[in-house]
Amino acid sequence: MDLPQLWFILVAFFFVGYFVLDGFDFGVGMSLPLIGRDDTDRRVMINTIGPIWDLNETWVIVAGAVLFAAFPEWYASLFSGFYLPLLLILLALILRGVSFEYRHQRDDDTWRRRFDLMIIIGSVAPAFLWGVAFANIVRGVPMDEAHNVTSGLFHLLNPYGLLGGVTLTLLCLIHGLVFIALKTDGEIRSRARRAAGIAAIPGALCAVGFLGWTILMHLDIGHIGAVVALAIGAAVMMVAATLANQFGREGWAFAAMAVTIALAVATLFTALYPNVLPSTSGVGGLDIRNASSTDYTLTVMAWVAVVITPLVIGYQGWTYWVFRRRVSRKHIPSAAH
């Protein structure tokens, strides 16, 4: 394995980590109007991710930084054609983060409802737009010989891209509902389990359709067997998550959903390899060779990653362990807002 191949795998690893971890954050935000009966319920739900949502979000910063340093041509071409959706994702993430911090700053129902709406928008929009973006990265976009993407936002909203957006949104919703069931107690826990079971039906249908479509588009690649195996693995783990949720085994259900999302994202990266941004116009496509940095840059980055990555993973694991206990309505002081 050479350095460009190694760093393609590491880029995939960081994006897998981001979608697994921030995915259930998105799902919790989406579920506020679905299972939150009153403000106390919604505060319980927000408190399940309160200590960890910003830590989860740092994975996209790391993924973006790694992409910029390891594959600068890929990074530049993405922003030449995906600038508007990426900007909308950034604005939605800012909106969500601000809302988490400000919703409790005033004892006013209208104030809280407005920030709850921003949390919902700031959770649905990134999940959907990330799905659209990655679907189009795998599908390919029109490019010129200078590797500039020559299409705009509406070109990205094709059937395959839209299905990718809906699929990721539903997977994040299920992931978030299972996490709420894992982290709460009482009636809200029961409602989260029931809602996750209901959402699993359209989620599974969309996931099967999207991954099946992905396989059909890449039947001519030499490693199609690996793509099929990963897609089947994602389907099996989603079934396992659904069954575990039905039997009240929230820990197993959450772990299975995490593996489902990880395998689904890995399927896309495997189908993409060795390309990083295919061209549908016949010229200008990028692969891991013509998009990567120099070997010296990749070597230095590799040594930094060897030192830093275990520390980041260890710290995050310790944080999850510290905040592992369930949250319930009794933990929400009635006088607080």
UniProtKB/TrEMBL annotation:
Compartment list: Cell membrane
Keywords on record: Cell membrane, Electron transport, Heme, Iron, Membrane, Metal-binding, Transmembrane, Transmembrane helix, Transport
Cell membrane recorded as keyword: yes
Transmembrane portions of the chain: 6-32, 44-68, 74-95, 115-137, 157-182, 194-215, 221-244, 251-273, 300-323
InterPro entries reported in the protein's UniProt record: Cyt-d_oxidase_su2
Membrane topology note: Multi-pass membrane protein
Domain of life: Bacteria
Keyword Heme attached: yes
Protein family according to the UniProt entry: Belongs to the cytochrome ubiquinol oxidase subunit 2 family.
Protein name (Swiss-Prot/TrEMBL): Cytochrome d ubiquinol oxidase subunit II
Species whose genome carries this gene: Nesterenkonia aerolata
